[in-house]
Amino acid sequence: MSSKIQLSYWALRGRFEPIKMLVEYLEIPYELKNYEIENWQEWFMEDKPKLNSNFPNLPYLKNPLTNEVITESESICLYLCNYAKRMDFIGEEFQDRLNISQIKGVVDDLRQNIGLIAYDPNFNEKFKKEQLEKTVYPKLILVNDELKKYQFLNKGKLCYVDFYFYEFLNVLIRMEPSAIDKYQILKDYMLKIENIESIKKYQESDRYMKNGKLFGPTATWQG
After folding, report:
1. Is the pTM value of this prediction over 0.70?
2. Cα torsion 186, 129, 209, 106: sign
3. Please, what is the end-to-end C-alpha distance for the chain in angstroms?
4. What values do phi and psi take at 99, rounded to 5?
5. Spatial strand order in the sheet of 60-63
6. Structural contact between residues 221 and 118, judged by C-beta atoms closer than 8 angstroms
7. What's the rounded Cα separation, in Å, for the pair 118 and 95?
8. 30 pairs with which residues across the strands?
9. Taking every annotated instance into account, which residue ranges of this chain make up the domain GST C-terminal (predicted)?
10. CATH tag for 90-196 (out of 2.70.150.10, 1.20.1050.10, 3.30.420.40, 1.20.1070.10)
């Protein structure tokens, strides 16, 4: 049996991509198991009932050395940071944890709002533009203003939430290619993330689903 961490999710980017970026950044050896949407029975009928967790869900993490199973995206991120002994990524001091928690809430709102747009049955160009103006851009401007002062989200220090925000920006640009054209700060921020050596190697590898679907099959706009 392999001693590597196992990470599992549907065969799409979805809420999994920031976790993959984190594990790649931390350089933790891992194995990936993707469940194909077309073969949904493998997860729901076979693996989910057998998963050693009180809260079986996707994504999940398995540690074969300890038999631990972790579900829920944020819990997986916390586990990985602790596993790699990178507590700075989740906040070593109370003020850092407070900063990270606050910005995570903002980024979660942005991700939720763009998800609501993608899954809305009324999705079309007019609806998309109206909803982005109403529910996404106002809060995006606030994050842009924060990044004018600091290069990363935890008052200048890289943290796991940066990978969530980076992926949100990718989704936003895929949905509306001109979305951040007037925000040079955000474009520079994305380049900083992409130029981190471990992230650069990851995005040049076949492990990176560059053109992978962003949302599941029930979304009106899947990306």
Report:
1. yes
2. positive
3. 36
4. -60, -45
5. 30-35, 5-10, 60-63, 68-71
6. yes
7. 35
8. 5
9. 93-212
10. 1.20.1050.10
